[in-house]
Each structure stands twice: as C-alpha cells, then as structure tokens.
Amino acid sequence: MTPPQLSDLAELVRAPAALSVPGDVVAGAAAAGGLGPRTAGLAGASVCLYWAGMAANDWADRELDAVERPQRPIPSGRVTPGAALGVAAGLTTAGLALTAVTGGRRALAVGVPLTAAIWAYDLWAKNTPAGPAVMAACRGLDVLLGSAGTGRTRAALPAALAVAAHTYTVTELSRSEVSGADPRLPAATLAGTAAIALASVAPAVGRAMSVRQATSAHWWRAGVTAGLAGWYAARYGAAQTAVARDPRPEQVRAAVGAGIVGLPALQGALTARAAATGTGLATAVGLAVSAAAPIGRRLARKVSPT
Q: In this structure, what are the phi and psi dihedrals at residue 159, rounded to the nearest 5 degrees?
C-alpha cells in the first residue's frame, strides 16, 4: 500500500494549528519566571502531543467524518485508519519522551495527565457535555507544562485559566460547525472573550499604576500587553459577531478557525504581562509569540486548522 503523502499527514494533524501551541508553554514559563532553554524543548513536546491528539481525533471520528466530512484524509482514502492511529501513538511517545528529557520528573508530572486528557477527549469526552471542559483542561495543563520544574507552578495558574477559558469558548463553538449555531451561543462566547482579554490586561496595567515611580519601561510593557490582548479580542470577537448575525455552519467554522489561529495573540499578552514583574525578556518573547497569529492565518488558507 502506498504510504500517505506528507501533505495528507499535514492535513491529518492540522499542521498550521500547531502554531498556537508553543505559546502555551511560553506563557506558563514566563509567568513562573522560568523562560530559558528548557522552554523550547517543552514547547516541542507540546506540539508533538497536540498533533497526536489531532490524528487520534480523526481516527476516532472516521465513521462520522465519512458522512459529514468525506474530504478528510481518512474517509477520502488518502490515509488509512491504521496509519492515523500509528501517527497518533508515535507522536504521543515522542512528546512524552521529549518532556522527560527536557523537564524530568516534574515535567512528566504534568505531561502524563495532559496526555491522558488529550486521549480522553478524543476517545470519550468529545461528544459528551464534558467535551469543552476536558479540552479546556488540556490547554490549561499545557500552560502549566511550561512552569514545570521551576517550583512556581502556582504562579502560572492565572495564565492557565485564561487559556483554558478561551479554549472552552472555541470548543463550544466547534460543536456547531456542522449544524450551525444558536445565535445565543456566539453572544455568550463573545462575552467570555471580552472578559478574558480584560483579565489578561489588568495585572500589567495595575502593576504599572501601583509603582510609585513607574518608568516608561513599565508603561511600555503594560502597553504591549494591552495591545496584544486587544488584537486577540478584536480578531476573535469579530468572527463571533459574524456568527451571531449569520449562524450558518461556514460562519461557525470561520469563528473556530479565528479562535485557533488568534490564540497566539492572547498567549503573547499573557507572556508580555509577566514583564510587569521586572523582566523585559518576557515583553520581547510575548511579541515573538504573537507573530504566530498572522502566519497561522495564512497557512490556514492552505490547510484547515479545524
């Protein structure tokens, strides 16, 4: 049997969507004051686990996709079910191995539950009421993975909750990709997006205002955080507003895509706000993380992130 083409595998794992993944680890590391060489390795492990989840998702949904999305790699015959499952298992093994090598036991203490949550979502929770919460837990744990090994995991909890809340809104919307949405749903997720953006900005601005002799650097860092959070809210919010006006499936899919490829802007804001505690490195890294958003939008035109 002819092995699948690289382009088919890229579609299977929704390769462009992985640009939204390293920012989880970076935001967690920044919040815990642990940005460094280890962060890159844990980000790579996170990408492997994300791609594994995408492949497992298509394997689990192969019969449903044959009806609703026959163009997907498995129902179209471009990737066999066995190959998809093998990709998922291989990437899972690679992700856990990289986690262990890079972060040791403390990282594995987060990586193993993260892996379990990913597979639980694909094989069980996805089509249940618990689906959005389990997916949100996956992203929250991914942020905490970045803080693993620093001994300051608690400091990363606010960033983890922000990313988890965003993920919850995207997952709720994604459940209406085929049938279309009740207009009340995008209205609710839009309110959530606004709250997430405000909560992301408040600590940085509050820090700048509370410093008796705030310097231009304090306000620069706060401004970068606010700008990135505003960018996130504007992009994702516009897509949700479009769904509220026209809840057809294609609009819902566009909003889900916007939520996925727009996440780096939120991650960048969460990373940059860590600079308000005194490290300018986080500001630069936050801007770098946010650069994945426009790149992801361009790549999403070639390979769907949903």
A: -65, -40
Q: Cα separation of 92 and 84, whole Å?
A: 12
pTM confidence score? 0.91
- What distance in Å separates the CA atoms of residue 99 and residue 91, rounded to the nearest whole number? 12
Of 179, 141, 167, which is closest to residue 46 (Cα–Cα)?
A: 141
**Which tokens is 282 given?**
């986080």
* Rounded (5°) CA angle 54-59-64: 105
Q: Are 25 and 144 in contact (CB under 8 A)?
A: no
Give yes or no for a contact between 285 and 277, defined as CB atoms under 8 angstroms apart. no
Q: Where are the alpha helices (DSSP H) in the chain?
A: 6-12, 22-31, 37-60, 62-68, 81-123, 131-147, 157-174, 184-210, 216-245, 249-261, 263-273, 281-290, 292-300
User: Residue-wise pLDDT tens for the chain (306 aa)?
Assistant: 678 899 999 999 998 888 889 999 999 999 998 888 999 999 999 999 999 999 999 999 999 999 988 999 999 999 999 999 999 999 999 999 999 999 999 999 999 999 999 999 999 999 899 999 999 999 999 999 999 978 788 999 999 999 999 999 999 999 999 889 999 999 999 999 999 999 998 876 666 666 555 566 667 778 888 999 999 999 999 999 999 999 999 999 999 989 988 899 999 999 988 864 445 677 777 878 887 767 767 776 767 676
